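Narrative summary of target 7.
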Amino acid sequence: MNKYQRLRDVREDRNLSQKDIAKLLNTTQQQICRYETGQQMMGIDRYIILAKYYNVSLDYLAGIVDSPRKLID
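Modeled conformation, tokenized:
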């Protein structure tokens, strides 16, 4: 699995739309689509926001490790 697929999978696991995440990141649904398909790289600042929001580690969200680790229990 690549890091872009992970972004989509985590979002879908929580029954969120691209519009929901766009609102959280103060961007557009089209931009979220670009991140999830790998057409554009997402900055670390946005990865941090998503990691906190989803309560998962950055390495999991970025597709480096396959086992999710919570930030806060």
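The chain has a mean pLDDT of 92.
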